[in-house]
Amino acid sequence: MSITPSNENIIPLIKKESILASLDRGIRLNGRKLNEYRQLSIILDYAKKADGSALVKLGDTGVLAGVKIEAEEPFEDTPNQGNLVVNVELLPLAYETFEPGPPDENSIELSRVVDRSLRDSKSIDLTKLVIEPGKKVWTVWVDIYVLDYGGNILDASTIAAIAALYNARFPKVVKENDEIKIIREEKGDKLPMNYPVVTVSVAKIGNHFVVDPDLDEEGIMDAKISFSYTPDGRIVGMQKSGTGSFTFDEIDQVENLARASSQKILEELKKQLNIQ
Fold first, then answer.
1. 25-43: pLDDT as tens digits
2. Per-residue DSSP letters for the chain?
3. What family is it from (predicted)?
């Protein structure tokens, strides 16, 4: 298995010192406040052949998510619910250190974190993906492609996955004489989404905490924590990365920052997806 370093972005010492000096003044080099998210834009239906898709731009970070829905047998341990499978690919075109080939450990980790946030939040109701109980269910494939690596691809990937799921529609299902026919050429209902979920990442750089770190900030950060939230404020996922550490008090501070940002991102997401 190949190794794709996720933060092998070498920052010159003079730039690192500039970033730290700017943070000491309470502002980031790009002009953002320490708790400020980058601009978010979402283009739905970007991949026309997919059952649902969304292109997400978060500052310089670009992520495309596509949904494909297939009728398959249920998993043995969950005969009465559908299947959800999330895959992430770090495309070589996205960054100079990303390599072609099978998914590496960074892609697999990213896939699992996004999958866990979607699954544990019950954002999508898997029990409503059953076609014939115990025999046939819908499998929802969520394929995520990182197109431009500008930092914080986890938050962008979760947003892209949620947007593509809300955009997706089942193939049409017709029941004739106890026989179920699936007509892929015609679209049916939307997926049974309960609510959106978002992930907010906060990096620790020296004595500072910055929300939604960009590529340069990730290159000099000590550590990072990502929290996933539902609209009612439940934490449904948490991931720590980087070699540095957080004290318990620092985790409380970081979680407060992430929670405040999550509400803003959820409102922006609802607005762009036109959902309640």
1. 999 999 999 999 999 999 9
2. -----TT--PPPHHHHHHHHHHHHTT--TTS--TTPPPPEEEEES-STTSSEEEEEEETTEEEEEEEEEEEEPPPTT-TTS-EEEEEEEE-GGG-TT--SSS--HHHHHHHHHHHHHHHHTT-B-GGGGEEETTTEEEEEEEEEEEEE--S-HHHHHHHHHHHHHHH-EEEEEEEETTEEEEEEEEEEEEP-B----EEEEEEEETTEEEES--HHHHHH-SEEEEEEE-TT--EEEEEEESS----HHHHHHHHHHHHHHHHHHHHHHHHHHT--
3. Belongs to the RNase PH family. Rrp42 subfamily.
Burial of 50 (0-12, 13-18, 19+ CB in 10 A): buried
Give me the pLDDT at residue 3, please. 47
Residue range 152-181: mean pLDDT, rounded: 92
Number of residues in the chain: 276
**Cα(59)–Cα(44) distance, integer angstroms:** 17
Task: Give me 182's structure tokens.
Answer: 């699936």
**Helix 153-167 × helix 105-120 angle, to 10°:** 50
Is the pLDDT at 260 greater than 80? The verdict is: yes
Per residue in 121-146, pLDDT (tens digit) is: 999 999 999 998 888 999 999 999 99
pLDDT of residue 22: 95
Tokens 């906060």 locate to 202
- Please report the pLDDT score of residue 2 as a whole number: 42
Count the Cβ atoms, other than its own, within 10 Å of residue 76.
6
Domains of the chain in start order, with CATH, are: 13-273 (3.30.230.70)
Question: Average of pLDDT values for 189-209?
Answer: 97
